[in-house]
Amino acid sequence: MANQPKTTARAVRISDEVWDAAQTRAKGDGVTTTDVVRRALVEYLGLPSETTGFASDRQRTGQRSTDDV
């Protein structure tokens, strides 16, 4: 948390079916749904993934973020 910038919470509309499936898969993959959404947007925009602050990257360093869901 001390090394991670705070991010703004966002609201999006998505069907329960898609959201529930994303949460289930994310949990199985050991990542957060926030990470899944963040990765999808980063890929969509063609941004470098090393600057996004994924929870899976923080897990290696023992850090957590308040936006992990």
What can you see in these coordinates?
This protein has 69 residues and is mostly helical. It has a domain at 26-61. Helix content is 49%, strand content 0%. It contains three helices and no strands. The longest helix is centred in the N-terminal third of the chain and has 14 residues, at 16-29. It is globular and about 30 Å long. The protein starts with 15 loop residues before the first helix and ends in an 8-residue tail after the last helix. The model has no long low-confidence stretch (mean pLDDT 79).
Report how far apart the termini are.
Answer: 15 Å
Which structural category do the helix and sheet elements fall into? mainly alpha
Average pLDDT taken over every residue = 79
Q: How many DSSP helices?
A: 3
Low-confidence stretches: none
Number of beta-strand segments: 0
Global morphology: globular
Oligomer: single chain
Helix content: 40-55%
Q: Beta-sheet strand percentage?
A: under 5%
- Strand-and-helix sequence, N→C? HHH
Gyration radius, rounded: 12 Å
- Major sheet: size, sense and barrel closure? none
Biased composition (Basic and acidic residues): 57-69
Organism: Nocardioides mangrovi
Protein name: Ribbon-helix-helix protein, CopG family
InterPro entries: Ribbon_hlx_hlx
